[in-house]
Amino acid sequence: MFFRGVFFLLTLSCPMLSFSQQEGQGFCEGLKRGNYFPLDIKSKKIVWYETYYYERLIGTKIFNDKTYFEFEQEWKEGQKDYLFLREEDDVVFQYEECCQEETVRFGNKIRKESAWVSISGEFEYKLKSDKQKLKTPYCEYKDLMVIEAKYKNNIFEFYYQRGLGYIGAKENGKLISFIVPEI
């Protein structure tokens, strides 16, 4: 449960969600000019440690007079978590229900080695690279953006591909999460 909770909070994942690829785009292929953090993906299946969940765009919600896309994460065991994301001026924000404020999740204007902290203060993020590779059981990805997230004694790396968004994560260097070609 701890790691599921951490992922819910960190899911820089998350929202890049679905497999409504563009015509001719394969499961393992991104786009040369696509966004690393697209909010228009409808659904993804994501393995997280020993379990999985489906992440689905289910609508919108308004908090503090701002409209957020609402993503539902339905876990294998039936539990549901929710993410609320919006984009403004090339910056993706996540509404944090704990604090009733938003945190920066990603920004196209954020440069390599830029760092920021979640609104709760629990997570420290850093944009590491946009040229990384990641091998999963299904694909070998390249030219990925990596965001490092520090939480207590753990270091997570979240991998994003243009046009697909979140595709996987490592914890302390070990693969713990990846997208699956089924919805």
Description:
It is a single chain. It is built from one helix and twelve strands; from the N terminus they run αββββββββββββ. The protein is mostly beta strands and 183 residues long. A twelve-stranded antiparallel beta sheet has the order 6-5-4-3-2-1-12-11-10-9-8-7, with helices on one face. A hairpin with a 4-residue loop joins β8 and β9. The radius of gyration is 15 Å and the shape is globular. Residues 1-24 have low confidence and may be disordered.
Low-pLDDT segments: 1-24
Distance between the termini: 23 Å
Question: Radius of gyration over alpha carbons?
Answer: 15 Å
Which strand-content bin applies to the residues?
Answer: over 45%
Order the strands across the largest sheet as they lie in space. 6-5-4-3-2-1-12-11-10-9-8-7
Please report the total strand number as a whole number.
12
Number of helices: 1
Largest sheet: 12 strands, antiparallel
What is the share of helical residues? under 10%
Shape: globular
Q: What average pLDDT do the residues reach?
A: 82
Keywords:
mainly beta, 1 helix, 12 strands, globular
